[in-house]
Write a structure and sequence with these properties.
Layout: H1 2-6, E1 10-18, H2 22-25, H3 28-41, E2 51-55, E3 63-70, E4 73-80, E5 85-92, H4 98-108, E6 113-121
Antiparallel strand pairs: 1-5, 1-6, 2-3, 3-4, 4-5
């Protein structure tokens, strides 16, 4: 995959992590530490602080949302209280290993199953 990335503008890894630990996805402090640790793992330089906001008008969407700018793009996420799922996107014009992000994130939030979608952007 790395050879293909060199021919594209960027890579997007979208993770749908199922059955996360409810305490972890409901903690702004934990989510912020996840972003710091993830950026260290995939060698991305954070630009500014991680924004984590808890909101949602109804149970279907209620939970924390997270945004972290990185020098090569951004990391975003939403953590759904109703289903205990995490929806995380990592987008960068610098290569990273999506499978490594998947393994790390699933373990970090104690998820049971993760659907990973990788898109090469051109």
């Amino acid at each position: 995959m790395e050879d293909n990335v060199l021919e594209t503008w960027g890579i997007l890894a979208s993770l749908d992590i199922h059955d996360c630990d409810p305490n972890k996805i409901r903690s702004a402090v934990y989510i912020k530490q996840y972003v710091i640790d993830l950026c260290t793992l995939i060698d991305m330089k954070r630009f500014g602080d991680t924004q984590v906001v808890n909101f949602g008008d109804n149970d279907k969407v209620a939970g924390y949302s997270m945004v972290q700018l990185i020098e090569t793009s951004c990391i975003t996420g939403h953590f759904a209280n109703l289903t205990n799922r995490a929806y995380i996107d990592v987008f960068s014009c610098k290569y990273f290993n999506p499978k490594e992000v998947q393994r790390f994130s699933e373990e970090y939030f104690n998820g049971i199953y993760t659907k990973l979608t990788v898109t090469l952007r051109d």
